[in-house]
Amino acid sequence: MDSLENHLLIAMPSLDDPYFNKTVTYICEHNDDGAMGIIINLPINITLNELLAQIEEDGDEKLPELAQQVLTGGPVSRDRGFVLHSPQSGWSSSLALSDDVMITTSKDILQALGSDDAPDKFMVTLGYAGWGPGQLEQEIKANSWLITPADSQILFDTPIEQRWQKATEKLGIDIAHLSTDIGHA
């Protein structure tokens, strides 16, 4: 199977896993060792401003007002933060995932959010989704996931609650017509 890096993994309605129900996952890495992705449509009950207040070492510093919802990126390492953002270099630990998307895991980007130094577009997640060698391929064969090339508009400009539907529409599929039955033609 070709690498699914920079693709969206769309949960089929038949996926029998309550954690991934109707999720869309951006695949950051996919190779013979497995896959790593960030769920982009699963909000947790905390705003970015609240998260920054929790991690701010100096409680006297005024924080920017950021009402953006923090997302859970997946069930693995939920205490680790990931920032998916539009391209902007200069952070301590960043990786370009495509021409339109970078991921940064260093704290310096969090300190810049809400300022003129922040990337134009971003989302903050806690945790990630991971698959062992061949695991994702097996789940795709079992019709648990649909795949489409990543789209920065879905990532950064589509409201969280509409990302699953918009990703399926990108495939030309009307979500109302997706069967929950498993099978191959």
Describe this structure in words.
- By secondary structure, the chain is α+β, with helices and mostly antiparallel strands.
- It has five helices and ten strands.
- It has helices at 48-55, 107-112, 135-141, 152-157, 163-170; strands at 7-11, 24-31, 34-39, 43-47, 69-72, 76-85, 94-96, 102-104, 122-131, 145-149.
- Strand 2 (24-31) and strand 3 form a beta hairpin.
- It is globular.
- It starts with 6 loop residues before the first strand and ends in a 15-residue tail after the last helix.
- The model has no long low-confidence stretch (mean pLDDT 90).
Features of the shown structure:
alpha+beta; 5 helices; single chain; 185 residues; ten-stranded mixed beta sheet
Residue runs with pLDDT of under 50 for 5 or more positions: none
Distance N to C terminus: 19 Å
Pairing-aware structural class of the strands and helices? alpha+beta
Query: What is the percent of helical residues?
Result: 10-25%
Secondary-structure element sequence?
EEEEHEEEEHEHEHH
Shape: globular
Specify the number of helices. Answer: 5
SSE topology sketch:
Elements: E1 7-11, E2 24-31, E3 34-39, E4 43-47, H1 48-55, E5 69-72, E6 76-85, E7 94-96, E8 102-104, H2 107-112, E9 122-131, H3 135-141, E10 145-149, H4 152-157, H5 163-170
Parallel strand pairs: 5-9
Antiparallel strand pairs: 1-2, 1-10, 2-3, 3-9, 4-5, 6-8, 6-9, 7-8
Short description:
With 185 residues, the protein is an alpha+beta fold. The protein has helices at 48-55, 107-112, 135-141, 152-157, 163-170; strands at residues 7-11, 24-31, 34-39, 43-47, 69-72, 76-85, 94-96, 102-104, 122-131, 145-149.
